[in-house]
Every structure is written in structure tokens, then in C-alpha cells.
């Protein structure tokens, strides 16, 4: 039984815990001959890295990735790629009381009920430290996509933080990497800063919504029924820590629409079909249409807060708990690069799956 492995053709298996010496990913199924080095993967890890702004945890991890296998003279060899990231700033003393008590909103109680044993240091395997390994695997996927689907671009950004929503009229992709929120609206950044500062001062945390846009995705990725592209994207996003809801395209808002409003009407363009809208989020019948793929997800507020919460300990005693340590006041922020990595892995996996099944054969129109 392999429950730590993602993907069908392009696969990765992550290993490691928050406070172990290292964690990483074993990537398999990567095509040979793709240019890859540690510097390429590092750029993705740097976007996820903790301690990069006052709005993320102050745990200082360099998150330096090492490639231990599968790359020779700067190119992938088609053999397993072992990626390793050392944990350098774990402080077990910050987490001592988690050994005995179950933090509300955390996996402590569920792990205890299931396994009866857990590495409680920093949340062990349930810690979002694990996502560093996925981001590294996503970097490999991005290198392959650069070769196999050169026009494909994956962009993640925040669309909501608590009461604040992105004003889509101001959408500016160039702003995303120039502020600590991955927010595509530079003018709104001061208001977002004030809001999150106030949340933090109140010793609280807040939820968020993140959107991932896949542009330039070829039509034909995905498969009917059990390998739908939207199914796999939803599962990938839902596998990220603290994600509680995923939408494709119109998502839950589709429940309020009529069929007239929701129909993505089709016209013939110069280079094939042209859709007049994109309520479907770029996927019909589980298969990409060539439109932008739009995935959105909700992230719950950080559970570790300095406000006392009621819980129980291992003896069954009812207690109050303050979760000290270094925590992000809004974990949705650092979920952005993780979601991009997961999207890259899903799209590449489906690209390779499609090549294996259809060999690139396509239906023609006109
Ligand atoms: C990038 C990232 C960082 C996170 N950091 C924290 C944190 O500092 N404190 C915390 O309480 N939860 C944090 N979380 C969320 C927990 O890992 C998660 O809520 C917990 O493991 C329980 O899993 P679940 O919420 O998916 O059910 C983080 C999540 C992400 C995506």
C-alpha cells in the first residue's frame, strides 16, 4: 500500500517529518534529457520558504534542495530523481506540550486515534514542512513542462483573505510576486497588511482563498470517468494542508446560475474553436478544452493561535491550550506556491498519460 505517492506516470513519493534531519521527494517517471539543476528547483522553493516576510512563520529554513540521483551532466536520465532538503531550524522545545495534548484543528488527535504513535515534534508528518518536498517535485514537473508544453504557464494568487476580496477589475499579474500576499493588485496591499496585522495583534489567525490559473494548456488532457483532469486537480489541491474546499471554474457559484447564463457558447475562430465564456474552468467531461484552467480553493485559518482553546489530553483530562511557537497568521499565503507545484504535477502527469494513450492524435474540426 503506497499512500505517500502522487501521480500515475510522473510520480513522486514524499518522505520526512517536520523535525527529522531532512525531508524530500523521490520523483519517478520523469522523461530523460530534460535540463535540470538545483538552481532551477530552488527558485520554486524560495517562493514557499518560511521567514520570507513578517506575515509568514519566522522559522528560518534555507530550504536548500539537493539532487542526489537521476540527473547527469545537467540533464535528467529517466531514472528516479531523489530530492533532499535538510531541516535546519527545528526547535523541539517549542512543541513539547503537543506530546501530551491534542491541539484543536490539528491532526494530533486523528493520528493518535489511527496509529497510537506519532512524531509530535512540530506536527511530524502532518506539518506543512512536507510541502517543501512537493514544491521541489513541482520544480521538476515545471522543467519538463517547459520542454513539452512551452506555452503553458501556471500562476497562483490570493483572491481572498478573511473579509478582504480581490477586486478583479484591478487584476494585475505583474503585481503577484511584488508583495507578500501573492496578490494581483498592488493598490490593495496596504489594506491587506493592516488587516493581517490587526488579526495577528488580536492573537488570532484568518482563512484565505487561492486561485490557480493554467494558461496555454493543450486541449485533450484528462480522461473520462476515473482520471478526470478536474478530479485529479481537486484531489491535488485538497491534499494540501488546511485546504477545506476546492472549486473548478464557476465552482459552488454554479448552483445559483441558469443554464442560459452558464453555457460557454462556441464559435469558430481562426485557429479552431473559440469559447465565448469560461464558466467550466477549462475542463469539459474531465478533459481540457484549451481554455484557461481555473482552480480555486479555501484554506482554513491557522489552528495554532495564542488565544486559549478547549481540548483534552492523552489521559482524557479536559484542559485549555495555547499553541505557542512560530506560526503563519494566514497559511493561505504560503499555499500559493504549493498549489502551483501540485497543478504542475497534475498537468504533466496527464500530459504523459495522454501521450501514452493517444500518441497526440486529435479530433479535427473543419
Ligand atoms: C504552508 C502552510 C503552512 C502551515 N503552517 C501552519 C502553522 O504554522 N500552524 C498551524 O497551526 N497550521 C499550519 N498549517 C496547517 C496545518 O498543517 C494543518 O491545518 C494541520 O496539519 C491539520 O490538517 P488539515 O487542516 O488539513 O486537516 C499550514 C498549512 C500550510 C499549507
TrEMBL record:
One of its GO terms (cellular component) is cytosol. GO terms for molecular function: chorismate synthase activity; FMN binding. Pathway: Metabolic intermediate biosynthesis; chorismate biosynthesis; chorismate from D-erythrose 4-phosphate and phosphoenolpyruvate: step 7/7. GO terms for biological process: amino acid biosynthetic process; aromatic amino acid family biosynthetic process; chorismate biosynthetic process. Its EC number is 4.2.3.5. Its cofactor is FMNH2. NADP(+) binds at residues 48, 54. PROSITE patterns: CHORISMATE_SYNTHASE_1 (PS00787), CHORISMATE_SYNTHASE_3 (PS00789). It comes from the Bacteria. Reduced FMN (FMNH(2)). InterPro entries: Chorismate_synth, Chorismate_synth_AroC_sf, Chorismate_synthase_CS. This is Chorismate synthase. It comes from Paracoccus thiocyanatus. The lineage of its organism: Bacteria, Pseudomonadati, Pseudomonadota, Alphaproteobacteria, Rhodobacterales.
Amino acid at each position: 500500500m503506497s499512500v505517500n505517492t502522487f501521480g500515475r506516470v510522473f510520480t513522486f513519493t514524499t518522505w520526512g517529518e517536520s523535525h527529522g534531519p531532512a525531508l524530500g521527494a523521490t520523483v519517478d517517471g520523469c522523461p530523460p534529457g530534460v535540463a535540470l539543476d538545483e538552481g532551477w528547483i530552488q527558485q520554486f522553493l524560495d517562493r514557499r520558504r518560511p521567514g520570507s516576510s513578517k506575515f509568514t512563520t519566522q522559522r528560518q529554513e534555507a530550504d536548500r534542495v539537493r539532487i542526489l540521483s537521476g540527473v547527469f551532466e545537467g540533464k535528467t536520465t529517466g531514472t528516479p530523481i531523489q530530492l533532499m532538503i535538510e531541516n535546519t531550524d527545528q526547535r523541539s522545545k517549542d512543541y513539547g506540550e503537543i506530546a501530551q495534548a491534542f491541539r484543536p484543528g490539528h491532526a494530533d488527535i486523528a493520528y493518535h486515534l489511527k496509529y497510537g504513535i506519532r512524531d509530535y515534534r512540530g506536527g511530524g508528518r502532518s506539518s506543512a514542512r512536507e510541502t517543501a518536498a512537493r514544491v521541489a517535485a513541482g520544480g521538476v514537473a515545471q522543467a519538463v513542462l517547459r520542454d513539452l508544453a512551452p506555452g503553458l504557464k501556471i500562476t497562483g494568487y490570493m483572491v481572498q483573505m478573511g473579509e478582504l476580496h480581490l477586486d478583479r477589475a484591478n487584476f494585475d499579474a505583474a503585481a503577484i510576486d511584488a508583495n507578500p500576499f501573492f496578490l494581483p493588485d498592488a493598490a490593495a496591499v496596504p489594506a491587506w497588511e493592516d488587516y493581517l496585522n490587526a488579526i495577528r495583534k488580536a492573537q488570532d489567525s484568518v482563512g484565505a482563498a487561492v486561485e490557480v490559473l493554467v494558461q496555454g494548456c493543450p486541449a485533450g488532457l484528462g480522461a473520462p470517468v476515473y482520471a478526470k483532469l478536474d478530479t485529479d486537480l481537486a484531489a491535488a489541491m485538497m491534499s494540501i494542508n488546511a485546504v477545506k474546499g476546492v472549486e473548478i471554474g464557476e465552482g459552488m457559484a454554479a448552483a445559483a446560475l441558469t443554464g442560459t447564463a452558464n453555457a460557454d457558447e462556441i464559435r469558430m475562430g481562426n485557429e479552431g474553436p473559440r469559447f465565448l465564456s469560461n464558466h467550466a474552468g477549462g475542463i469539459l467531461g474531465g478533459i481540457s478544452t484549451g481554455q484557461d484552467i481555473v482552480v480555486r480553493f479555501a484554506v482554513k485559518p491557522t489552528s495554532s493561535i495564542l488565544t486559549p482553546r478547549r481540548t483534552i489530553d492523552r489521559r482524557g483530562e479536559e484542559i485549555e491550550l495555547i499553541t505557542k511557537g512560530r506560526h503563519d497568521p494566514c497559511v493561505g499565503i504560503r499555499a500559493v506556491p504549493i498549489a502551483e507545484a501540485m497543478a504542475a504535477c497534475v498537468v504533466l502527469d496527464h500530459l504523459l498519460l495522454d501521450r501514452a494513450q493517444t500518441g497526440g492524435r486529435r479530433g479535427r474540426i473543419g
